[in-house]
Design brief:
Blueprint lengths: L17 H15 L6 H14 L4 H8 L4 H7 L1 H19 L15
Helix pairs in contact: 2-3, 3-4
Length: about 110
């Protein structure tokens, strides 16, 4: 569960300087034999995976720390497009479902 606490705290739970985080991250990559990457790339990957799994733009914005959801939407527009396609598919399925409800009739319907 997200608590809003530090992502990289020191051993005592206090703020850890960015340079120390970077050094630890680079050592971890070297020791693990993983492909070279950056913390920024991991941040982008995290946001992309959240969006692709259906997380709202607001949730992604808050996790990334963007001041406005517009920033998140402008950076990740290409990923939200696939959510639009999925939403259109769901809407179409509902329109053609066998268990139709007695909702409002379409304009011109009799």
């Amino acid at each position: 569960m997200y608590t809003g606490s530090l992502v990289f705290p020191s051993e005592t739970g206090t703020y850890l300087p960015g340079a120390n985080i970077l050094k630890s991250f680079e050592r971890l990559l070297q020791n693990s034999k993983l492909p070279e990457t950056t913390l920024h790339s991991l941040r982008h990957t995290s946001a992309s995976l959240l969006i692709k799994s259906g997380a709202s733009a607001k949730v992604v914005q808050e996790r990334l720390g963007h001041s406005k959801v517009d920033t998140t939407l402008s950076i990740y527009t290409h990923l939200f497009t696939s959510q639009q396609d999925a939403a259109a598919d769901v809407f179409e399925q509902q329109l053609h479902s066998k268990g139709k409800t007695n909702g409002p009739k379409a304009a011109g319907a009799g």
